[in-house]
Write a structure and sequence with these properties.
This protein has 13 helices and no strands. The protein is mainly α and 304 residues long.
Length: 304
Amino acid sequence: MSAPSLSLPDRPAAPALGMFLVLLLGATCIGFSGIFVRFADVGPAAAGFWRMAFALPVLAAWMALENRRDSAGGVRPGAMLPIALAGLAFGVDVVLYNASLGFTSIANASLLGNLSPVGVILGGWLLFREKPTRRILGALLLAIGGAGLLVLPKLSGSATPLSGAGLFGDGLAIGAAFSYAAYILAVRRARNRAAAGRIGLISSAICAVFCIVAAFGLSETILPQSLTGWLAVAALGLVSHAMGQGLITLALGHYGANAASLVMVWPALVSVLAAWAIFAEQPSPAQAFGGVAILAAVLLVRKG
């Protein structure tokens, strides 16, 4: 089904540097989500609920500003299905990723969780017929190779051997990666039919409902038990979600899914560095080379 005539173009030829920086800033904010989850003293799904709850007022204000600038901006036909799918997919991603942090390291969870570009590029190719260029494919391989170097010491046992629980956590992180790929694809489709603020608000509300139902179903601790816990869930909502996901949703209106998905490997590097600084999870030389490879991939994406 083709997009309405007023929709944004699927693949703008040359996104501005400013919009690329918006995309990168959003990805950086998301990179701190694992740190915030570690400080939150609630269950994985409950942390996801609070992330949405604190973000919703900001997203509502954003949508109101959009409506003032564009009175005809509403939701165009065909927008609600991809928005709803985005909310559900992100709910699954948040719950799986948060749960993985209880069984594996922040670096491992973040790196495996950022394998989503594989699913996004394949999905964009099959569903949206966005055939990746050689440069995009090269950047993808470089980014995945960098992620492999980052996680190699853990997988090889040269750091801390993975236990059964660690492997379970890695599996949850991989599941989160493919869920996030579905989220990116759904948002990309929705951005042809609705404004970024509206997409963020509706999908986040759906995600909040999913997470609180899951939290009660899993008998999790719902309310934070300390000031640190409250500050952590507030940061999840305001920094990682309202700012992080909001800026990424905005940027996806100017980038094709292939290029945008590759920048999503950036949070892995941010997570590794933050875990090193806060939890003394020092990266090995192989992990350092992996970080350089990710930076190089981001630069390739900027060139299109």
